[in-house]
Amino acid sequence: MKASILAVKLIKHFEGFESNAYVCPAGKITIGYGTTIYPNGNAVKLGELCTEQQATGYLLNDLNKRAAIIGELPVNQSQYDAILSFCYNVGMANWNNSTLRKLV
Predict the structure, then answer these.
(1) How far is CA 56 from CA 3, 11, 31, 96, 97, in A?
(2) How confident is the model over 48-97, as pLDDT tens digits?
(3) Which of 11, 20, 62, 68 is deepest in the core (most CB within 10 A)?
(4) Model-level pTM greater than 0.70?
(5) Residue 82: helix, strand or coil by DSSP?
(6) How far apart are CA 104 and CA 96, in angstroms?
(7) Of the candidates 92, 94, 75, 64, which has an alpha carbon nearest to the alpha carbon of residue 3?
(8) C-alpha angle with apex 22: 20 to 23, nearest 5 degrees?
């Protein structure tokens, strides 16, 4: 399963767009819609800039990586999108240790 268009829109809405790299509340350097690592594997650095189009590409890359790790789950598309949003927000390590994962 992959993220739906609705999942991407939802994450964009809650993350918000920042063209300038900044330090997020979790202390990570972030850009766009919450990207910390570019698709090429390089970490985001303060002072870097991106366009909304680039940020959307970064977000889709991030979601595809998470979807590959999550794999197939016995859930519908809306539930899968919610799980991807959760993973995007809290990180894969927290997903792996979460009660949510155990319940699914």
Answers:
(1) 13, 11, 11, 25, 28
(2) 999 999 999 999 999 999 999 998 899 999 999 999 999 999 999 999 99
(3) 62
(4) yes
(5) helix
(6) 11
(7) 64
(8) 170
Please give the positions annotated as active site. 15
User: Which of 23, 15, 12, 18 shows the shortest CA–CA distance to 45?
Assistant: 23
Pair of tokens at residue 78: 């809306």
In the structure encoding, which two tokens stand for residue 42, read together? 């390089």
In the chain, the percentage of residues whose pLDDT exceeds 90 is: 95
Q: Which residue has the tokens 């997020």?
A: 24
Of the chain, the end-to-end C-alpha distance in Å amounts to 15
Euclidean distance between CA atoms 3 and 60, whole angstroms: 8
pLDDT tens-place string over residues 6-50: 999 999 999 999 999 999 998 999 999 999 999 999 999 999 999
Cα–Cα distance list, 86 to 21, 39, 42, 59 (Å): 22, 20, 23, 14
